[in-house]
Amino acid sequence: GSLRVGVVANRLPYVLADREGKLVGLDVEMGQVLGRDLGVKVEFIELENPAALSALLSNGRIDLAMSGIGVTPERAGEMLFSDPYLDETLAFVVKDHLRDQFSTWAEIRKLGGFPVAVPNLLYYIEKVKSRTPALNLTPLDSVNQIDDSLKRETFDAIVMPAESGSVMSLLYPKFTVVVPEPGIVKIPLAYPVARRDQDWAHFINTWIELKRRDGTIDALYDHWILGKQAGKRQPRWSIMRSVLHWAD
Q1: The pTM is what?
Q2: Nearest to 6 by CA among 40, 42, 39
Q3: In Å, how far are 39, 125, 136 from 109, measured between CA atoms?
Q4: How far is CA 59 from the centre of its chain?
Q5: Residue 10 — left, alpha, or beta (φ > 0 → left; ψ -120 to 50 → alpha)?
Q6: In degrees rounded to 5, what are phi and psi of residue 139?
Q7: Distance between CA 115 and CA 94 in Å, rounded?
Q8: Counting Cβ atoms within 10 Å, is residue 107 exposed (0-12), middle (13-18) or buried (19+)?
Q9: Each residue of 190-235: pLDDT tens digit?
Q10: HSE-up of 40 (CA within 13 Å, CB side)?
Q11: Strand pairing category for 157-161 and 16-17
């Protein structure tokens, strides 16, 4: 009678906790919609170690994961992914004065061995290395490490999806998001399930297409990533209002 959804905490803007400790975010709402459509309650299970995701799916502890999880070849070898529901854009979160130096791949190559942090995912590392082989990349293992690096200004540049980086740049105003050109790199987001669950994955694929066609995904994208508010409804949770207190 319940849907067990694994979530990675502090995965802005897909999963995060508000001031009362309640989980909110684009994928939290998607999970709630999925539960309503199935007629079951939703149990969100926070994953202390995202690397354990494959094992938790395999042993049946969770039914799927919904946390803005990018599809990479190494992950696809461990889990069965749904069809993508959104794409993220590979970007750099950099100090404001470095904006122009990260605006193109050619300009980045001129920086030589400049120190840059990157999520510890082979796919991300290879995409950056293939375009700027001289950069001195330091892998970071968790979202908390990335957040701490921005807070302490340990690095002047961090590789990050633009969609998450735009939120981080609000939290840490000294930083801005830059998407180098040409050759924008897209990373699909999908929902992983256990490799044995072919029928379940097929259902999720159909459900994603329904949510795409009925406007659910577009509406959540507009709110959580673009910051738009629909109509005259009561204000919803948002980074600017609930964290930064920049709006009434």
Answers
A1: 0.81
A2: 42
A3: 53, 15, 11
A4: 25
A5: left
A6: -70, 140
A7: 11
A8: middle
A9: 999 999 999 999 999 999 999 999 999 999 999 988 877 654 444 5
A10: 13
A11: unpaired
Handedness of CA 7, 13, 16, 22 (dihedral sign): negative
3-state secondary structure of 114: coil
- Give residue 41's identity as a one-letter amino acid code: K
Taking the alpha carbons of 177, 128, 85, 204 in that order, is the dihedral positive or negative? Answer: negative
Indicate the burial class of 139 (C-beta count within 10 angstroms; 0-12, 13-18, 19 or more): middle
The pLDDT of 162-181, averaged and rounded, is 90
For residue 145, how many other CB atoms are within 10 A of its CB?
16
Burial 186-220 (b: 16+ CB within 10 A, else e): ebebbbbbbeebeeebeebbebbeebeeeebbeeb
Q: Average pLDDT in the 158-172 region?
A: 88
Task: Copy the structure tokens of residue 79.
Answer: 């889990």
